[in-house]
Amino acid sequence: MPGRSSGTARVKPLLVTMGDAAGIGPEIIVQAFRQGALHDAVVIGDPAVLRRAGAPMTALIDAPADLVDVPSGCLPLLQPPDLPAGLAELPLGRIDARNGAAAARCIEQAVALVQAGQGAAIVTAPLHKEALAAAGLPWPGHTEMLQALCTTPGQPAPPVRMMLANDELRVVLVTIHLSLRRALDAVTFDAVLQTLRIAHRAARDWGQPAPRIAVAGLNPHAGEGGLFGDEELTIIGPAVQAARAEGIDASGPYAPDTVFMRARRGAFDLVVAMTHDHGLIPVKYLGVEQGVNVTLGLPLVRTSPDHGTAFDIAGQGLADASSLVAALRWARRALAARQA
Fold it and tell me: Tens digit of pLDDT for each residue in 55-112?
């Protein structure tokens, strides 16, 4: 079979991690491959798991640069060392520590390759947080794991934030994977201001150097002048003013039950939300098919689908790769904007 075009050799490939082997990650990777969406990508994972998910043929490679030598019709696959054995024999749709460990190992390999200059960006298929915990890993999700892996020894961790985006709405979160009680305590002046700075800087990654950022309040009606809570007056509002003094086009805080609608209609380019569900419910309600999760603040580009492992439909032929394909597109746009 003929090899890939020589243009592939001139570009570092995207690195796609397989996610939890018991979920739909391998399935949507195979779907994306069949759609031609992985033409410039290498999958980091287990070959038997990808074959179980329907990969027509896999081509094991030793380094991302070998992508150019992979015949068309073969899924280029790089298998990290020390993956747990027998992953393809584990049942679909069930939490297993071995799958959690394997998902983490793939991510570690992808980060190391990008840091070594061998990969352009990372696109992660979904992992399962309980499987990570069962494997004894300390991170509650991708965001925190990537932050740790990108931390230089002896240096503070880079401040990162989660953004969920689609064609209609982009939302950046101040707090992420915390209980709601803990998240309320984590909404501080410094956290809000840092989020605004990260969102403003990250906008250049998609070619928008001066985004209009709306800040959602924490309380009903954004506190109604202190009647329903004073965080807007004592924390969020002052952080917005401090950001504006730095030249960031931030405004608010606005009532969180209406600000997303205003952004969707074009009044703002980004919304900063205080808690995980405050920010993500509006985006996911619009449909997960085109949603993309982007980690802001990392020294590398990382995107993922905006859905989870979907254990309930794994292996049933019901998974939809649209969000993964959107994540691949976003990564390419971010890379192009960085190089412009």
Answer: 989 999 999 999 999 998 999 999 999 999 999 999 999 999 999 999 999 999 999 9
Q: How far is CA 186 from the centre of its chain?
A: 21
What gap in Å lies between CA 212 and CA 215, rounded to an integer?
A: 10
Which amino acid is residue 206, in one-letter code?
Answer: W
Domains of the chain, CATH where assigned: 1-157+301-340 (3.40.718.10), 167-286 (3.40.718.10)
Global pTM? 0.91
Between CA 138 and CA 57 the distance in angstroms is: 35
